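Appendix B, record 7
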Amino acid sequence: MTTNEFPAHAPLAVQTRGELVESVHYGSLAAVDPTGTLLLSRGDPSASVYPRSALKPLIAVGLLRAGLRLPADQLALAAASHSGAAAHQQLATAILTGAGLDESALRNSTDLPYGVAEREAWLRAGRGPTRLAQNCSGKHAALLATCVLNGWPLENYLDPGHPLAALIRATVAELTGDPITAISTDGCGTEVFGLSLTGLARAFGKLTTAAAGTAEHDVAAAMRAHPTLVAGPGRDVTTLMEAVPGLLAKDGFEGIQAIALADGTAVALKIADGGDRARMPAAVPALLALGVDSALLDEFNHLPVCGGGHPVGELRGLPVSDLPLLL
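Structure tokens (predicted):
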């Protein structure tokens, strides 16, 4: 890739220390209305990005369309990047058990629990990386359960030529409205697709406005009913869903955040350098512009920067006046 092929990212968030701007976080952002029409933009929302784990809710839709039926808590975990708590691992095990399988069927990468407290407790207990503890184990358990249901091979369920891969590609392309061109491999071993932020936002908006009885509705309802399973206690995605009624949120590695409101307006963003800390503050100005009560968003923006144990600056999203309104 040459420099003229780089996305035209723009400043989304800044960190101040004292009177100076210490760091600037660049990225791109798209916000759409319930019809999928672009409302707000920053940077290069049409450039292809890998949504990483923000694809999980879309993948879960495909699994339900293929006949998978799970209780709401297990379905939420199938769309999760969970913290690896005992409850998370038990639910992943339950998905496998329901399909007549156990942990040995998993082919995701091994890892320690993702949550800080969960990881520290895991290490104190003398445990090492496992597939069940890895944050995508719920998704992989659901992938395997779908294979069992449809009589598809289990050993190669991650292969690009597997029927599961075709199902997922078709579902993601339909929900986002984007053609799938770039395809690579995510950290856990499943395929990941290059998509526009506009397309990602469009897909999340469809989840929150889908009719009852559809796969889209069921995935969104499960995630909103069980936000601690989608991430974990203290994680910003969980806290945001708990704070704003009807909101659906999912993050992804490398600075990805997707959020949809109950009315189908939605935001998707990418932090250019993949850093995680600016992901939620960068989303706040767009959410305010879409009508979310500022009192519900205070804890996700203006994050304190400390010096000597005392606040001396903040990390904040750029003011909404700096985001070009397209309406």
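Remarks on this record: DSSP finds eleven helices and twelve strands in the chain. The first helix runs from residue 56 to 65.
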